[in-house]
Amino acid sequence: MQGIFLETAPERFTLEEAAQRCRALGAELASPGQLYAAWNAGLDACNPGWLADGSVRYPIVTPRERCGGALPGVKTIFLFRNQTGFPDAQSRYDAYCFRGKEGHPQMLPSRDQWEAREASGRDACPRWVCWVQQSRGVLQGRVCVGIPECSLSRAALSGRSRG
């Protein structure tokens, strides 16, 4: 699979840790352009994450008060109140990773540890599938991948979610 996905961990990542985590998954930190393209295709995540240029952004399709206010868009976390500067590289955020056509993850979620969830909910064909790992109700990790042109049917998706 190719596309952009959100990678998270309980402690989050510094910029360098985020880049290392994406590489460990056979990907790289996404560019702002890749995040904008994913947002335009329907990616909605209230999770600020590192990008390749050192910025921290998150895509919002459905506006909500706690996720950047009343307008949709790709939101940016700035260092200063006048909306300039990137966050310190030692700050901790999630990571937006990108895997191209040739990229292959080194680690895939096992069916007994992860729950597959459809993330689009609006179309007959899901655009994103997310695997969420929880332990005692606490989010341990999440991986989302884009599904190009309905290559995975709802029947296949529902079969995966049952494990």
Automatic annotation (TrEMBL):
State the compartments where it is located.
Answer: Secreted
Spell out the molecular function terms from Gene Ontology: hyaluronic acid binding
Record protein name field: Brevican core protein
Domain (Link): give its ranges: 3-99
CDD domains per the UniProt record, alphabetical = Link_domain_CSPGs_modules_2_4
Signal peptide boundaries? none
Primary location:
secreted
Q: Which UniProt keywords apply?
A: Disulfide bond, Glycoprotein, Immunoglobulin domain, Proteoglycan, Repeat, Secreted, Signal
**A GO term from the CC aspect:** extracellular space
The family database entries (SMART domains) matched by this protein are listed as: LINK
Gene3D superfamilies attached to this UniProt entry: Mannose-Binding Protein A, subunit A (3.10.100.10)
Please report any disulfide bonds recorded for this protein chain, giving both cysteine positions: C46-C67
The UniProt entry, under InterPro entries, shows: C-type_lectin-like/link_sf, CTDL_fold, Hyaluronan_bind_Proteoglycan, Link_dom
Query: Which GO BP terms sit in this record?
Result: cell adhesion; central nervous system development; glial cell differentiation; positive regulation of neuroblast proliferation; skeletal system development
